[in-house]
Write a structure and sequence with these properties.
Blueprint (H helix, E strand, L loop, with lengths): L38 E7 L12 E7 L3 E5 L19 H10 L2 E7 L1 E4 L2 E4 L2 E6 L5 E4 L4 E4 L4 E5 L2 E4 L11 E6 L2 E5 L2 E5 L4 E7 L2 E5 L2 E5 L3 E15 L2 E5 L2 E15 L2 E5 L2 E8 L2 E5 L2 E5 L19 E3 L4 E6 L2 E3 L5
Parallel strand pairs: 3-4, 4-7, 5-8, 6-9, 7-10, 8-11, 9-12, 10-13, 11-14, 12-15, 13-16, 14-17, 15-18, 16-18, 17-19, 18-20, 19-21, 20-22, 20-23, 21-24, 22-25, 23-26, 24-27
Antiparallel strand pairs: 1-2
Length: about 325
């Protein structure tokens, strides 16, 4: 909030200056924020007696912040936890109920929190990691769904995906966006799937990935994004997919922008992007491919010829494709 100059406590107002004040008779004075930010109010008051004598101005400062909530692993779980800085929530479930009841919520995350089942978010919110080790542990059956045109932003958060071997109930994707928006900024995501795995599934939505590192490993097929009708924008990020068949971005319809990022696939068959009917711009990136052995116990090191890094069908529109460095892919 903007700094408010200190009031002159000893100033005596003239009668003409009282026009800036409203006569207080009884009841309460309602102070409400005007935006999705905290607001600092300065309430000024003067007294006028029956003889018309005017007192010096007094004031009261108060911060109104109904949007910010806190969740912390450092706190002991109590019944009176209200999500405030002094009585933070201690579980994700407490938090989600609050988020979906409001138009907008800002969440300050302190520590790593377990998500063990599907988590539905249907209202705008921002999650901010308060330390370098703040974020979420996603268990095998966990996933985060964003819908109802909500915009969800994760800033400075860590995501770690925990798996159990041969777990048939594991989700095949961790994030699902449906007609909504998802933003990762300055985050780190590490995911493992026992079979097929997609980090983000998206339908008719917006995805923005900035200053973020993502690593995904599977035993079969792996992709960072599988989307339809989605607008994708990514810059200054790092992507790594380790799988027999690996794709960083798979998109049908929508638009795609990728710049100043490092994308690597370690696979038998891998691509950076597969684009169908997409308008795209790809500039100043580094694309790397390395083959891997397909037969268990094979002691030979076999070099696999990979397809081109970016595959686009004839219905795509190329806005820009320049300044990219390629290693392990044939040059198109």
């Amino acid at each position: 909030t903007d700094e408010i100059p200190a009031a002159k406590q000893d100033k005596i107002l003239s009668k003409s200056e009282l026009t800036d004040f409203t006569l207080y008779e009884d009841g309460s004075v309602l102070l409400e924020p005007m935006t999705n930010e905290a607001v600092l109010y300065r309430v000024k008051a003067v007294n006028v007696d029956a003889g018309g004598n005017i007192s010096a101005v007094s004031h009261y400062d108060v911060v109104i912040d109904p949007f910010s909530y806190y969740i912390s692993t450092q706190s002991v779980q109590t019944k009176d936890a209200d999500g405030s800085a002094t009585k933070p929530f201690t579980s994700v479930k407490q938090l989600v109920d609050v988020i979906n009841e409001r138009d907008f919520t800002r969440v300050y995350v302190d520590g790593m929190f377990v998500i063990s089942e599907k988590m539905d978010i249907t209202s705008d919110c921002e999650f901010y990691g308060m330390t370098s080790r703040s974020g979420f542990l996603l268990f095998p059956a966990a996933s985060i769904h964003v819908g109802n045109k909500a915009k969800v932003t994760f800033d400075n958060c860590v995501f770690e995906h925990q798996i159990l071997q041969n777990n048939q109930s594991m989700q095949e994707y961790l994030f699902y966006i449906n007609t909504s928006s998802l933003v990762f900024d300055n985050c780190e995501l590490i995911t493992n799937f026992s079979k097929n795995g997609i980090l983000i599934k998206s339908d008719n939505s917006c995805l923005e990935i900035l200053n973020t590192g993502i690593t995904l490993q599977t035993e079969s097929y792996g992709a960072i994004l599988s989307g339809t009708g989605t607008s994708v924008n990514s810059s200054n990020s790092r992507y790594t997919v380790v799988a027999p068949t690996a794709v960083v971005f798979s998109l049908v319809g929508g638009d795609f922008g990728l710049t100043q990022s490092i994308c690597s696939v370690f696979s038998d068959l891998g691509r950076i992007a597969e684009l169908n009917s997409v308008t795209f711009s790809v500039t100043d990136n580094f694309f790397k491919s390395e083959g891997r052995k397909t037969v268990a116990g094979d002691k030979k090191t076999t070099a696999y010829e990979q397809p081109e890094a970016i595959w686009a069908d004839k219905n795509c529109t190329v806005l820009k494709n320049s300044g990219n460095t390629v290693s392990g892919f044939p040059r198109s």
